[in-house]
Write a structure and sequence with these properties.
Layout lengths: L13 H11 L7 H13 L7 H15 L10 H16 L3 H7 L10 H7 L3 H14 L1 H7 L7 E2 L4 E2 H10 L10 H4 L3 H13 L8 H10 L3 H15 L21 H8 L1 H4 L3 H8 L11 H14 L12 E2 L8 E2 H16 L3
Antiparallel strand pairs: 1-2, 3-4
Helix pairs in contact: 1-2, 2-11, 3-18, 7-8, 12-18, 13-14, 13-17
Length: 348
């Protein structure tokens, strides 16, 4: 994750910016003043220009992720939770019957954990149950310590890992009542980190479509997917254009497919394997585009194709998770949000 870009002071006054935000909100939004205030604050405290394009990008993501609900109700959430519980129990080697029995005990609210799961309607409901269970039940720590399955939260569905890392890099501007993870359930916190994830990095894109893809797949994923396509051109090795230049599993001991393909042409690149790996480690930084590896790969690929290859493409990723019940991809997500973005831009 890179440092936020240095942005020139916006030309519009705070009053003009807030008026623009309020105008661009969907007509169905309730508490328009509250949403306007918190969206504007998310821009202002991070020195990001509340331009029409940037505001529409944020509005489009909120519409897609939550429909402008701070803590949206998710149909069938209880069933999803039970499915996840059973999956984690199996992974931990704990018989499912023991887990279900443990959840029959009374929680600190007086109701059983089982009853609370059945009646959970929002992600915060479910997260509170998990945290309570982890603290109170011996099996809880074995199954769920540091593994609360509610990993994305709030009106922009921001990943907890991103918010935690960003708060370490740039101090969170609001009082923290419980934790950064819990702040994502608040409107102001969810918008602050969501705007950061979407806009607070200097991506060299000519379309917001790629930022929307990055929002789903990780910052610079669209740039990295284009790099993988270029690697395939010069090596003849078909690569998954998922934007992950190194294995996503940080404990993996073997090199990933992109690195292996590059090692095979290390001589042509005039780079050592160590230099290749060091460059790939910058996959989530703007500096990757300045490395010898990046420049050499695209130079060779452009000459091979006798044309300039795209420097950004939407990653090819199939989406999975407890809340996903049908086949979805990052491309589907990016196009869906981009459609909302374009409609927002046309508003008068």
């Amino acid at each position: 994750m890179s440092q936020p870009p240095t942005v020139a002071a916006p030309a519009a006054s705070p009053e003009e910016s807030r008026a623009l935000i309020k105008t661009l909100l969907p007509e169905s939004v309730r508490d328009r003043d509250g949403w306007t205030r918190d969206i504007y604050a998310g821009f202002a405290v991070q020195s990001i220009d509340a331009s029409r394009e940037n505001v529409c990008a944020v509005v489009a993501v909120i519409e897609q992720e939550s429909g402008f609900r701070e803590n949206p109700i998710i149909p069938g959430l209880g069933k999803m939770a039970w499915k996840e519980l059973d999956s984690r129990a199996e992974h931990a080697g704990v018989p499912r019957v023991l887990v279900h029995a443990a959840l029959q005990v009374s929680s600190r609210t007086g109701r059983t954990y089982s009853d609370r799961i059945d009646s959970a309607r929002t992600e915060k409901d479910l997260s509170d149950i998990y945290e309570d269970f982890i603290d109170a039940v011996p099996l809880g720590k074995r199954l769920f310590e540091d593994h609360n399955p509610i990993r994305t939260r709030g009106p922009m569905q921001v990943n907890i890992a991103f918010a935690t890392e960003y708060a370490q890099m740039r101090p969170y501007p609001y009082p923290v009542k419980v934790s950064i993870a819990d702040e994502l359930f608040t409107r102001r916190g969810g918008l602050y980190f969501g705007i950061a994830h979407l806009l607070a990095y200097p991506a060299p894109y000519d379309r917001y479509l790629y930022r929307f893809a990055d929002f789903n797949a990780g910052q610079y994923s669209s740039r990295n997917a284009a790099f993988q396509a270029a690697v395939s051109v010069i090596t003849g090795v078909p690569l998954a254009r998922d934007g992950a230049l190194l294995p996503r599993d940080s404990t993996a001991k073997d090199a990933g497919s992109t690195e292996r393909a590059l090692r095979a042409v290390a001589g042509r690149l005039r780079l050592s394997e160590r230099e290749i790996h060091n460059a790939l480690e910058q996959e989530r930084s703007k500096d990757f585009a300045d490395t010898r590896l990046y420049r050499t790969v695209f130079d060779l690929a452009d000459r091979t194709r006798r044309a300039s290859l795209p420097r950004a493409i939407v990653p090819r990723i199939e989406l999975h998770g407890p809340k996903i019940s049908r086949k979805l991809t990052t491309a589907w997500y990016a196009e869906r949000v981009n459609g909302r973005f374009e409609r927002c831009e046309k508003k008068q």
